[in-house]
Amino acid sequence: MTMHLNAFLMGVGHHEASWRLPESDPYASWDVKHFQNLARIAERGKLDSVFFADSPVLQGDPGRRPAGKLEPTVLLTALAAVTEHIGLIATASTSYNEPYNLARRFASVDHVSGGRAGWNIVTTAGADAARNFGLDDVPLHSERYERAAEFVDVTTKLWDSWSDDAVLADKAAGVHADAAKVRAINHRGRFFRVDGPLNVPRSPQGYPLLVQAGSSEDGKQFAARYAEAVFTAQQTLAEAQAFYADLKKRTADLGRDPDGVKILPGIVPVIGDTEAEARELDAELDRLISPEYAKRQLAERFQLDPDDLDLDQPLPADLPAEDEIEGAKSRYTLIVDLARRENLTVRQLIGRLGGGRGHRTFAGTPVQVADALEEWFDNGAADGFNIMPAVLPSGLLAFVDKVVPILQERGRFRTEYDGTTLRDHYGLPRPINHLETSAR
Amino acid sequence: MTMHLNAFLMGVGHHEASWRLPESDPYASWDVKHFQNLARIAERGKLDSVFFADSPVLQGDPGRRPAGKLEPTVLLTALAAVTEHIGLIATASTSYNEPYNLARRFASVDHVSGGRAGWNIVTTAGADAARNFGLDDVPLHSERYERAAEFVDVTTKLWDSWSDDAVLADKAAGVHADAAKVRAINHRGRFFRVDGPLNVPRSPQGYPLLVQAGSSEDGKQFAARYAEAVFTAQQTLAEAQAFYADLKKRTADLGRDPDGVKILPGIVPVIGDTEAEARELDAELDRLISPEYAKRQLAERFQLDPDDLDLDQPLPADLPAEDEIEGAKSRYTLIVDLARRENLTVRQLIGRLGGGRGHRTFAGTPVQVADALEEWFDNGAADGFNIMPAVLPSGLLAFVDKVVPILQERGRFRTEYDGTTLRDHYGLPRPINHLETSAR
C-alpha cells in the first residue's frame, strides 16, 4: 500500500514567522514564480497534489506577517501551465460564491490542466468575511452547511449537464453537438434556483476532486456525504485513529465505499540532518513569533478579550463550549485539549501553534519524519498526509529530496505517476454522469 | 500617430460557420493550447491586447455551433504564462458577480501577468443568464447600469485599499506592512455593503484597464465616466465619426481627458491575396450558415416569433422601438438601420451578420484592409481597432503576417513593445490611489 501526499502551500511557509528568516522573500506571497517553483518541486517529488487554502477576506494583521493571497483558481491555472502531472487543489467558499460561477471556474481549471483540478469545499467562518458580502455577521454554522450541501448538489448537476459524448462535431451536417445531451438542470432549492446547462462541456475528470477540511459534527457528516479527500488536524495517533474510523464508518453508513474518501491529516515537518539541527530550526522559528500579536489572534479564536489571556499562565478555566464557537469548531476544541493535556502556558501554546495552527508539528531527521508518517499510515490513522512545510521553499525541498526517497525505498510512495488526472493519483474513479443515468 | 489593435478571439473564429471549414478544429473552443497559440501569434504581431467576451450562460444552440467557453479569467492566466508583453482583457458581469470576488480575481490576474490585465465591464443582457442566478428575468437595463456604476466604485476602492508602498518587509522589526496603509473601505451603497480591505496588495497596474462595450445611451454615459477603452460596432465611417465625437465630448464634459478613452470599432477582416480570393472566402463562409438557425437567433434579438421573419423578404415594417428592447439596445438599432439602409432581405441580412454579428465586415487584400483601417483612424472615427478574425487561427495569422507589416511600414503601428503593462501599450497612465489621496 502506498500513501498519498499533498503539499499544502502557504506563502513562504506555514510558520507565522517564516517570512522573517534571512532566506525568505517577504514579497513571495504574491509572486506567481515562487509558487510555480514550489509546484515544480512537488511534482519532482511525485506528490499527488498541491493545495491552497483561502478566504474572501484579508486574514491576519498585515502589519505582522504577509497577508493577502493571489486568488487560488487563478494561481492553480498559472501552475497548470508549468507542470504536467501534479494535482491542483484550491479552497473556495460556498457561502460567498454563486454555484454557476464556481462550477464554471473549476470546470475550466480542470479543462486547462487536463484533469488535475480539485475543490476544497469550505463554508467560511468569521464575521469579517461576511462583511465583504453585504452581511452584518456570518450565517449560523448549521445554515452554512445546509447551503454548502445544496451548493454542491447544484454544481454537480451543472458539471453533469453535458454528456461526455455530447459533442459530435459533424461538419458536413452542420451539427456540432447532440442538443439532447446538453440538458437544463432546472434546480429549485431553498438557497438556489439555477436553470443551466453549464456553459462549458464536461471536463476531463467529469468534475474536480471534491475535498473537505472541517472536522466539526456538521463537517464530518458533510465529508461523509460528499468528500473524496479530507484534510484534518489531529495531534495524536489515538485521536487520528478515532477520527479515521469514525469518518470511514459515517461514509459506509451513507452507502458509499469508505475507500472513496481519502483521509489526510496535516503535519508540519521540521527537517534537519540531525535531530539537534531540526530542533534548532524549530526553536529559531518560535523565537521570531511576536507573542503579543499571537495572543491577540488566540483571543479572537477563543472569542475572548486579549487581556483575558496571560502569556505565562495556562488558559483560563472558563472557556466557551464548542457549540458557542461560530468559527472553526473542531480546531478550537483541539487547541483547548492540547493546552490542557500538556498543561501549557499561553506562551508555550503559541509556540506549538506557530508552526501549524493546530496541526501536528514534528521536528526530526528525514528517517524520523518518514517513520512518523508510516506509523500513522500503518495504524489506521491516515490514507496519506497533508504536508505543511514550516518554511518555503526550503521545507518542501527537504521533504521532497530527503523524506520522499526514503518512503519510495520502503515501497510506501510512488516513484512515477501512473495516471494523468488528480483522481488517478488518489486512486479514485471518474464519476459517472448522474443526469445521464437518470435520463436513460 | 500610431493606432491600437486588439484581437477579439472567439473559438475558431467570429463567423458562426467557421467551425465547419476543413481547417478548423471543432473542439478548439475549450482547448487552452489553441488560445495559447493565438496569443503568441498576436504577440508576434505586437498587438496591444487580446480579448474574450463572456456571459454566464450557455449562449447559442450547441447543436448548431460550438457553445460554451472556458472561464475568461482562467483563460487569461493560462495565456499570461506563455506570453510576456501582450495585454489580456476579459469580460465579466457586474450583474452576476460580487465585487469583492471580482476585484480580487482581476487584481490576481494583474499580479500574475505583471500588469497586463483588463476588465471589459458588462451588465449582461438576457433572461436566460438571470435564470442561472435565482432570478426570473433580467433586471431592467437602467437598474443594471446603476448596479454596474456602484460595482465599479466598490472594486476601485478595493483596488486602492492597499497603498503602493504599504509593504515594508522589515524582518528585523517583525513589521511586514505599514498597517495604516492597508485600509478598510466601509462601502455602504444601494446595491453593496463591503468592508474591505482587499486581500491582495495593489497590483502592478494599480488596477486592470477598464473597458466597456455597450453603445446604448446608458452605455455611453457609463463609458464616459469609467472606461479607458471602448469596443463598439459601427458600420459606416459617418456613424463611427459621430460615435467617436459624441463619446469624446461626453468624456470631456465629465471633466476627464478625452484622450484617456481609446475608442476601438470592431472589424471582421476577411483577407485574401487578391480581392477575388477574399470575396470567395467570405462567400464560402456564408454558404455554410444554417439560415433557419440564424433566423431563430435574429427573431430572438428582435423579440419576435421566428415565423414573423421571411428569409426572402425584408424585415417586417412593424418592429419594436429600441427602448422596448431589454437586451443589447444599440446593436439592435444598428442591425435594423443596416437592413433598411441597404434594403436587405432577411437572408441577406443573415449573411451580413454571420461574420461579425453587427460589426463591420471587410473582405479585401492586405493593402485594402490596411487602407480601410487608416481611413477611419485618420478621419476621427477610431483610436484603433478591435480585430475580429472570421476564422482562427488563419484569420489572425493573415492579419499579423500581412496587414501589420503594412501598418508598421506606414508608421501607423509599433514595431516593438515600448512598455511592460497593458496601460503602457494603450498610452494610458497608471491610476493614482484615490483612497490614499483622500487620506492625506
Low-confidence stretches of chain A: none
Distance between the termini of chain A: 38 Å
**What top-tier CATH class of chain A fits best?**
Alpha Beta
CATH superfamily of chain A: Luciferase-like domain
Query: Strands of the biggest beta sheet of chain A: in what spatial order?
Result: 1-2-3-4-9-10-11-13
Largest beta-sheet details of chain A: 8 strands, parallel, barrel
Please identify the structural class of chain A as seen in this structure: alpha/beta
Put simply, the count of helices of chain A is: 15
Shape of chain A: globular
| Pattern of helices and strands of chain A | EHEHEHEHHEEEEEHEHEHHHHEHEHHH
Task: Identify the biggest protein-protein contact and residues per side.
Answer: A-B, 75 and 75 residues
What is the CA-atom radius of gyration of chain A, in angstroms?
22 Å
CATH fold group of chain A = TIM Barrel
Indicate the percent of residues in helices of chain A. Answer: 25-40%
Number of domains of chain A: 1
Count of DSSP strands of chain A? 13
What is the CATH architecture descriptor of chain A? Answer: Alpha-Beta Barrel
For this structure, the quaternary state is: homodimer
Q: Overall pLDDT of chain A, averaged?
A: 94
Could you characterize the architecture of this molecule?
The structure is a homodimer of 440-residue chains. By secondary structure, chain A is of the alpha/beta class. Chain A has helices spanning 32-44, 72-80, 99-112, 127-130, 141-159, 217-226, 237-253, 275-287, 291-301, 329-341, 346-356, 366-378, 394-409, 422-425, 434-439, and strands at residues 4-8, 49-52, 87-93, 117-122, 167-170, 175-177, 187-188, 193-194, 209-212, 229-232, 262-271, 360-364, 384-387. In chain A, the strands form 3 sheets. An 8-stranded parallel barrel of chain A has the order 1-2-3-4-9-10-11-13, surrounded by 7 helices. The first copy, chain A, has a two-stranded antiparallel ribbon with strand order 5-6. In chain A, strands 7-8 form a two-stranded antiparallel sheet. In chain A, helix 3 packs across helix 5 (141-159). Chain A is globular, with a radius of gyration of 22 Å. Chains A and B meet through helix 2, helix 3, strand 6 and strand 8 of A and helix 2, helix 3, strand 6 and strand 8 of B.
